[in-house]
Amino acid sequence: MISITDGQIYLQPELFASGVRPAVNVGISVSRVGGNAQIKAMKEVSGSLRLDLAAFRELEAFAQLGTELDKSSQQQLERGSRMVELLKQGQYRPFNVIDQSLSIFAGTKGILDDLPIASVHAFEEAMLEHFKTSQSDLRDKLVESKSFKGLEDDFMTAMKEFKAGWQA
Question: Between 66 and 111, whose confidence is greater?
Fold first, then answer.
């Protein structure tokens, strides 16, 4: 039998209790709409995000057993922790799609990897403000093209420069 729904989103009470909101279990949630409803920039930065987060959850559960992890697994855990923090959304605090894309770009490209987890939201807020003011020309190019294609290096450079001067 073929399902007539466009997907199912599974919420997980354990995620909610740990402060992850929305508490979506990305490992078992599915959607056929996502790609068609997203701008190209979001598709570009979030392409592997669902799988990366599901792998992070599995690795996180494995690490709780007290097993020693190799360097690659430790890095995956560190990035996953920052991505989870980055994706937490405050109540009544919607983000526009360009800001979402910029934030996820920073997270998936490793810009956040060496930040303390507690500083992720402060960094994100300051970075987004930076792109609305000092780097508005670059942000406007993303708004116009709705794609990072041809702009990746410019955004990486701008994010690294901003991070170098950012104070928590």
Answer: 111
The Cα angle at residue 55 between residues 53 and 60, in degrees rounded to 5: 90
Nearest to 73 by CA among 85, 91, 61, 84: 61
Q: Considering the candidates 32, 50, 93, 139, report the single residue annotated as catalytic.
A: 32
Site of tokens 């669902």: 50
Q: Name the DSSP letter for residue 28.
A: T
Q: Whole-number mean pLDDT of the chain?
A: 89
pLDDT: is 27 or 93 the higher one? 93
**Is there a catalytic annotation at residue 57?**
no
58 vs 3: CA distance, rounded Å: 28
Planar angle of CA 41, 123, 55, nearest 5 degrees = 60
Contact 155, 139 (CB under 8 A): no
Helices (H), 6-147: 13-17, 34-37, 40-46, 49-63, 71-87, 97-108, 120-132, 136-145
The token pair at 55 is 């792998």
Q: What is the pTM of this model?
A: 0.86
Q: How far is CA 2 from the centre of its chain?
A: 32
